[in-house]
Amino acid sequence: MNDVAPPGAPSPQQPPQQPTASAGSGGSSKTLLIIGAIVVAIGLAVGGYMVGKSKGEDDIKADYKAGQPGYDAIYKAGQQAGQATGEQSGEATGEQEGQTEGRSKGKKVGLEQGEQQGEITGADDVFDAYSSWQVGDFYIVQIGEGTGGVNYTLGARTEMAEGEDYKLCQDDPSTICVVTPSQTSSSSANGTGGSE
Asked: Where is 145: in which H helix or E strand?
């Protein structure tokens, strides 16, 4: 067949031409739409995140305001921990101060009681050298030298009786002699003699 048409005959129909990508704006519009949709989606996602984050933070902050459950839970936990720590610290400090004060007071009371008991024991030891004493009676005593750190002791004693006179014996000045008005001579009363 001949591609050339006879003169005066209509020209054969040509197939339509396909537009090239670079030739028109239809392809670039599609790309811009896709990019725009992606940008909008990212914007919506970021905005949603920010709104959600802000709402979450506001909800958390609201839960920790005075009187709210979160605040009360933290307050209660802190109060319990503080009280436990304070009690332990207070007990340790109180025990230490109590021991120090107790030792000091105990030492003072112990010294006072020891001195008092020592005086009683010492007085009893001095007077116990003789079997009995009459409260309210008068005695003539001879002071003796003490032993074991004691300065003095009773070396001898003579109980005084009404109507008798007393003096040092002439033949033994270390003893007391009892002189009665009816006697013309004196009798000797030594530390174990006389009236007990």
From this structure: strand 139-145
**7 φ/ψ angles, rounded to the nearest 5 degrees:** -65, 135
Q: For the chain (length 196 residues), average pLDDT per consecutive 10? A: 57 59 62 88 86 79 76 82 88 87 86 84 71 84 82 83 89 86 51 42
Q: What does the alpha-carbon distance between residue 138 and residue 179 come to, in Å, rounded to a whole number?
A: 16
Return the closest-CA partner of residue 139 out of 151, 149, 130.
130
Map tokens 């009187």 to a residue.
67
Determine if the pTM surpasses 0.85: no
User: What is the C-alpha end-to-end distance of the chain, expressed in Å?
Assistant: 183
144 in Cβ contact with 151 (< 8 Å): no
